[in-house]
Q: What sequence folds into this?
């Protein structure tokens, strides 16, 4: 029985570790400035915890086999423990775990402790059951007012976010169902939700943030590679949660300007 | 440490009841109440497991038509996951280890005749039972069961218009949880008082089995956590039905103003997780205590670092109340708080690691007897390590950015809070069955059950980590809408097949359980040659547990292989050897 346990525990350990090491299923390729740092810290944590995982499981399997009651082996060791060992492994784990936290702290701080740089591309993201809308302030750089009583999701676009068209600042606001941003420029997001909590999740950008009704949450990220990226909702928001999806199109500055100008032209 | 003369307890010893109703239904006997909790949890775990089976089927074959049930719609899927989570967390993981085995064995293991408050004990069970019925009723009302997840985040959970199931079904869900809290609070008071006041002579705190420590600490957590959830639930009920706005700001659902103003959705998250994180430990601590006990019994060796184990559980209990914010790193909470919660969460990994080291230390130099309770205890350690190892990932807000609310989280908490705790319940069942029913369970069936469950649960839950890393969000009812998930479908399919096999294997357990009650081999009073007090009394124990006499305790709970002792285990009541450690 001890031998079977050893084999099964080791097998589980090595098979699971193989798929981690082979990266058969792994984080999608990162496409934002923050991705490299996050992925690097992920790899560090992964290496440390992976060693602990394998060491603990291998020891468990080994002990199960080695100390099986074979009938003739010596009696069990009469020991109530060892204070020095307790102290050593307590200190070791404490240093290891707190060390990891402090290492990751600097990445977290650089992402979340500072506001977006002045001159960042501003996009207001609004989540509602079950769609994302993206609003751009237009040439005046100001978002026009929105009013809850004007919200009409069936109308799509401007009426879906409840844009108050009587506000002069709203005249040049562009509301889109697909998110366009220029590459290599910081994007400042203003996250809102109309009905329930949603979560704006772009795996490739290593970006996730809940959009909470009643709050306007400011966040930022910098895309560094052009391409199309999936946007998912990561917070359970009702029956259509699984299909609350959007596309993020990262394009060159020229393409972005052209796209925005075309949307402005449509409005006139 | 204070111990009391048993004379003070005799007022608690009540005469054995006559008649079916007093004996088996409205019983005051902690042993019967323990069994009532246990069988409630047993029905609940099968309901919860059936729901998960439907979910796994829907994820792979979204348009399949099932006999009797028809096609599972996306909204049904979300209801299934809500009810699966709620039933499993409350009515299985909180109910069986504490209400079931804690009720049955805490008084016996500390040498008491019953719990401190038998009537309150009976009431806690019946309130829990009522809560269970109310929860099940949510399936059968108009609109069906709620779809706001077991975490019930408002505004989704607060607005009738937010989706099907958010009408009466959601009201029943909140009421059920509030009732459950009432039952759990009464039970917690009872456990704490019993542990502090009812210990037999010589049973100092530091001579208590680690199971008793675990139930005691779990009860303290329950007392502090369930009160908060109860209040939070009442506020949610008011928001839903009385027009208040504790949790709901001005929102529009489908273009309609919802009539609320000024509330904070994050308030619920703080209150919920102030309960919710300690709840994780409420589910796992009894299993930790039990597996510590079993590793010692079946390796014929004292537990390695008894005091360290007690202090580790106490620190887990204390720190458990300071880490709830790690569920909210992406919620819009201050990023500075996230950093603080992250440090506390990493710190709680330390006592968890200490426990693992001590379990391995216990096995080191031992002589392991591989009976089925021991297999599940070793399985528990393996699962605890696997589930625990992903904790430090999620404890760091930096890594929570890609991992939060993905299948990685689902895999993490299922391994550590779900499967590891359930292994504790299985281990406890195989271990204490002879004492409870006077017969042994079939060992061959038990082993078959172990191997299928051990390998099967790994096959279901380990792949969830891969899926989560690849960016698969949790609580998605299907993955065929977008090509992003295409390469993950084979893995999802594999997990569904693994779930079929693992779920089928659970019928072996039920078969063994009921068959052994009738036809199992007769058990002796101490079949495992263990040292704690339940093995000193008759099998099954008499109404007052020790048949009119009162145990006096001389030894610690884990005196195995004592050099020079006549047998390899020294009972706690054995006066001839008083170990001075």
A:
């Amino acid at each position: 029985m001890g031998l079977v346990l050893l084999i099964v525990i080791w097998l589980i350990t090595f098979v699971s570790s193989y798929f981690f090491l082979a990266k058969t299923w792994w984080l999608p390729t990162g496409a934002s400035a923050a991705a490299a740092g996050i992925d690097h810290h992920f790899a560090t944590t992964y290496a440390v915890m992976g060693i602990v995982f394998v060491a603990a499981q291998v020891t468990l399997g080994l002990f199960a086999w080695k100390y099986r009651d074979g009938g003739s082996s010596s009696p069990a060791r009469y020991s109530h423990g060892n204070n020095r060992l307790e102290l050593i492994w307590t200190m070791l784990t404490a240093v290891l775990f707190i060390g990891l936290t402090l290492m990751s702290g600097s990445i977290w701080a650089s992402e979340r402790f500072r506001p977006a740089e002045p001159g960042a591309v501003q996009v207001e993201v609004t989540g509602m059951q079950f769609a994302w809308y993206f609003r751009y302030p237009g040439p005046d750089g100001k978002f026009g007012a929105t009013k809850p009583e004007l919200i009409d999701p069936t109308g799509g676009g401007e009426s879906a976010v409840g844009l108050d068209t009587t506000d002069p600042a709203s005249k040049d606001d562009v509301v889109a169902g697909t998110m366009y941003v220029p590459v290599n420029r910081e994007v400042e997001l203003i996250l809102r939700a109309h009905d329930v909590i949603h979560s704006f999740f772009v795996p490739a950008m290593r970006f996730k943030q809940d959009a909470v009704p009643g709050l306007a949450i400011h966040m930022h990220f910098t895309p560094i590679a052009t391409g199309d990226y999936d946007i998912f909702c990561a917070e359970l928001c009702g029956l259509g949660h699984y299909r609350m999806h959007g596309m993020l199109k990262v394009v060159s500055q020229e393409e972005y300007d052209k796209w925005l100008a075309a949307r402005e032209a449509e409005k006139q | 440490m204070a111990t009391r003369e048993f004379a003070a307890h005799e007022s608690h010893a009540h005469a054995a009841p006559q008649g079916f109703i007093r004996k088996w239904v409205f019983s005051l006997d902690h042993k019967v109440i323990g069994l009532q909790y246990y069988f409630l949890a047993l029905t609940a775990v099968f309901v919860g497991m059936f729901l998960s089976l439907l979910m796994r089927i829907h994820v792979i074959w979204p348009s399949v038509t099932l006999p009797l049930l028809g096609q599972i719609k996306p909204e049904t899927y979300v209801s299934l996951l809500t009810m699966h989570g709620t039933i499993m967390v409350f009515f299985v993981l909180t109910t069986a280890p504490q209400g079931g085995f804690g009720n049955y064995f805490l008084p016996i293991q500390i040498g008491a005749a019953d719990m401190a408050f038998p009537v309150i004990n009976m009431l806690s069970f019946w309130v829990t039972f009522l809560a269970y019925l109310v929860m099940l009723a949510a399936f059968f009302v108009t609109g069906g069961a709620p779809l706001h997840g077991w975490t019930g985040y408002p505004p989704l959970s607060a607005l009738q218009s937010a989706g099907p199931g958010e009408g009466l079904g959601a009201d029943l869900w909140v009421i059920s949880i509030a009732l459950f809290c009432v039952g759990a609070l009464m039970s917690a008071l009872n456990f704490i008082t019993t542990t502090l006041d009812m210990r037999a002579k010589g049973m100092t705190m530091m001579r208590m089995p680690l199971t008793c420590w675990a139930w005691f600490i779990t009860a303290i957590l329950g007392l502090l956590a369930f009160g908060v959830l109860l209040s939070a639930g009442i506020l949610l009920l008011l928001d839903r039905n009385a027009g208040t706005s504790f949790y709901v700001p001005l929102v529009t659902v489908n273009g309609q103003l919802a009539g609320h103003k000024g509330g904070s959705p994050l308030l619920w998250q703080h209150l919920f997780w102030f309960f919710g994180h300690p709840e994780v430990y409420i589910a796992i601590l009894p299993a930790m205590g039990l597996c510590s006990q079993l590793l010692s019994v079946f390796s014929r060796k004292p537990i390695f670092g008894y005091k360290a184990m007690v202090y580790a559980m106490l620190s887990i209990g204390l720190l458990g109340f300071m880490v709830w914010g790690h569920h909210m790193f992406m919620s819009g909470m201050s990023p500075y708080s996230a950093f603080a919660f992250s440090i506390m969460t990493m710190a709680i990994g330390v006592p968890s690691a200490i426990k693992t080291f001590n379990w391995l230390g216990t096995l080191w130099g031992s002589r392991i007897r591989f009976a089925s309770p021991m297999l599940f205890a070793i399985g528990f350690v393996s699962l605890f390590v696997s589930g625990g190892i992903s904790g430090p990932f999620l404890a760091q807000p930096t890594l929570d950015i890609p991992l939060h609310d993905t299948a990685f989280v689902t895999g993490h908490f299922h391994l550590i809070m779900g499967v590891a705790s359930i292994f504790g319940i299985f281990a406890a069942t195989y271990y204490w069955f002879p004492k409870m029913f006077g017969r042994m369970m079939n060992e061959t069936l038990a082993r078959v059950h172990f191997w299928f469950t051990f390998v099967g649960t790994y096959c279901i839950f380990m792949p969830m980590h891969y899926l989560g890393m690849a960016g698969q969000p949790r609580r998605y009812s299907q993955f065929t809408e977008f090509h992003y998930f295409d390469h993950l479908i084979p893995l999802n399919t594999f997990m569904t097949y693994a779930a079929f096999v693992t779920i089928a294997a659970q019928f072996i357990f039920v078969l063994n359980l009921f068959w052994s009650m009738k036809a199992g081999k007769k058990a002796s009073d101490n079949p495992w040659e263990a040292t704690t007090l339940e093995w000193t009394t008759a099998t099954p124990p008499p109404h007052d547990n020790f048949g009119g006499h009162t145990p006096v305790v001389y030894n610690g709970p884990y005196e195995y292989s004592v050099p020079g002792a006549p047998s390899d285990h020294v009972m706690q009541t054995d006066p001839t050897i008083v170990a001075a450690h």
